[in-house]
Design brief:
WD40_repeat_dom_sf, Lipocalin, Beta-prop_IFT80_2nd, 529 residues, cilium, single chain, four-stranded antiparallel beta sheet, WD repeat
């Protein structure tokens, strides 16, 4: 008598059968992974079907009891519904208030509010290997391609790229949100293709996201506007990176936010990221802080000991305040997360800043204050940001915010907010576009970007003496001599007079204040009309 084991990819046992057929000499799976055939020593061929699969979402638990039968249990009232299918079930997914089931011929879409009348449509191929759901759409992968459907059964798009192989796509290499699809390229695992959900066409100029190392896992955040869409990725070194994929000026900028990360999952209702990092369970309450103020990111983390999760855990989902993790032995572990960050995200997204401040004062949590500081700066809400930074003891940043608030024009304020977030080129472009040449030069002087400051001054034939004066003062303060050839060249022909320089600076600032006042008056007149 032989024993037939069915095990997962992680080597934990699903089932054990001992058929009276002699030794099993060979086995083979069907293309959809739901049937198993075995060649036996007595000349028989045995067939097995995968059943007793389970899916959970909130208070619903669904079990595949037979090849063509599912049991739905509502744990709140213990109500049970039985779902019957014409053909055997190949794949299923339960999330976002919908159950999507594919058989060998059809796709069934159920709403968790009504289990009696599913939406049914025929499939081009019956070998569906992957289902991924979002709030508005779901994605199917079969042998013929990738298809995005609405929950009403309408085919929305079918993205394609050269060399695409759908037979090897899985949940690690495909991700979808309400507006974006991300697919890792198998031929070059450093490349991630990005598509628009509605059209199936590549985003922007069509260039894919390219990382410096092979990408192991990708995940798109699920909430917020398309312009703020972000993608998290884990590379071969198990480093976690975040990229803002739709910001044209910062498109495809990839920033590291974690190391030794094994698995990640975004929350289904707010842009909070969970992961297992080394031997710790980590939650990034506001991962977008890395694009606003990198110093804030470590202060927005929740960390817990995760030594009980074994060596290769896998986060199944992050729904509401609960993270579900499957350990290497197949058991499920649930971890609770504070509800306050989700409420704070909701307040920030709807500009309810007073409510956000009240929440932080009530919770008395430094992590929440750090999240609020980043959210307020991202939304250019300087008053709230000032309070939040003061609460976490960032005195220097409070002073800089006060400086920004006192600037005479909107363009200067915007430029310095961009500088606050470390975006020097964008800050310069903003000032130059507004015609504030001196302010752009002064920004580079303050940052000690002497070559760029001189380049701008020479190009626009203004404030060359200002740059030279500040450069001389800088060298005197540090007891150094000039060695830069360009500065030596211009020093010979330009006279430095601090009184004239100060007068020119005052004149530039007066012009800016006057123009800002004129713009303000025009705006108020337009509003009255």
């Amino acid at each position: 008598m032989s024993a037939l084991f069915v095990a997962s990819q992680c080597a934990w046992s699903y089932a054990l059968e001992k058929p009276n057929t002699g030794s099993v000499f060979g086995v083979a799976w069907s293309a959809d992974g739901t049937q198993l055939a075995g060649a036996c020593g007595n000349g028989h061929v045995i067939f097995a079907h995968v059943v007793e699969q389970r899916w959970e979402w909130k208070h619903f638990q669904i079990t595949l009891t037979k090849r063509r039968t599912m049991q739905v249990r509502n744990v709140l009232n213990d109500a049970v519904d039985m779902l019957e299918f014409r053909d055997r079930v190949v794949k299923a997914s339960l999330a976002r208030g919908h159950l999507v089931v594919t058989t060998s011929l059809q796709c069934y879409v159920y709403s968790t509010k009504n289990w009696n009348t599913p939406l049914i449509f025929d499939l081009k191929e019956g070998t569906v290997s992957l289902i991924v759901q979002t709030e508005r759409f779901f994605l199917l992968v079969d042998g013929g391609g990738i298809y995005v459907y609405s929950y009403e059964g309408r085919l929305v798009s079918s993205p394609k790229f050269q060399g695409m192989r759908t037979d090897i796509l899985n949940a690690q290499s495909v991700s979808i949100s309400n507006d974006t699809i991300a697919i890792r390229d198998k031929t070059d695992e450093k490349v991630v293709y990005l598509f628009d959900v509605q059209t199936g066409k590549p985003l922007g100029d069509g260039k894919p996201l390219t990382h410096k190392m092979e990408v192991m896992k990708i995940a798109l955040d699920q909430c917020g506007p398309a312009s703020d869409r972000k993608i998290a990725l884990i590379d071969k070194n198990h480093d976690l990176y975040l990229s803002s994929i739709r910001r044209l000026a910062r498109e495809h900028t990839i920033v590291k936010i974690g190391t030794m990360v094994k698995t990640i999952a975004w929350n289904d209702s707010v842009n909070v990221l969970s992961g297992v990092q080394d031997s710790q369970f980590t939650v990034w309450y506001y991962p977008g802080a890395v694009f606003v103020d990198k110093d804030l990111l470590p202060k927005t983390l929740l960390t817990k000991d995760a030594s009980d999760l074994s060596s290769s855990p896998h986060i199944l989902n992050y729904v509401g305040t609960q993270v579900t993790v499957r350990r290497v032995d197949g058991s499920l572990v649930y971890s609770a997360v504070s509800p306050y960050p989700a409420i704070l995200h909701e307040y920030a997204s709807t500009a309810r800043w007073e409510d956000a401040l009240r929440l932080c004062r009530f919770a008395k949590d430094q992590t929440l204050w750090a999240c609020l500081a980043g959210m307020a700066m991202a939304s250019k809400e300087l008053t709230t940001a000032e309070v939040a930074y003061a609460a976490i003891g960032e005195v220097d940043k409070v002073q800089y915010i006060n400086f920004i608030k006192d600037l005479p024009s909107k363009e200067s304020s915007l430029a310095h907010m961009l500088l606050f977030s470390g975006h020097q080129q964008e800050a310069e472009a903003t000032l130059m576009q507004a015609g504030l040449i001196y302010q752009a030069i002064q920004v580079h002087i303050n940052l000690y970007n002497w070559d760029r400051a001189l380049e701008l001054a020479v190009k626009h034939k203004t404030h060359v003496d200002t740059v030279l004066a500040y450069r001389q003062k800088f060298l005197q303060d540090f007891g150094k001599k000039e060695t830069n050839k360009r500065f030596l060249q211009y020093s010979e022909g330009v006279e430095v007079d601090w009184e004239k320089i100060q007068a020119k600076i005052e004149m530039e600032l007066a012009k800016e204040r006057e123009r800002a006042a004129t713009t303000s008056v025009r705006s108020s007149v337009a509003v009255r009309r």
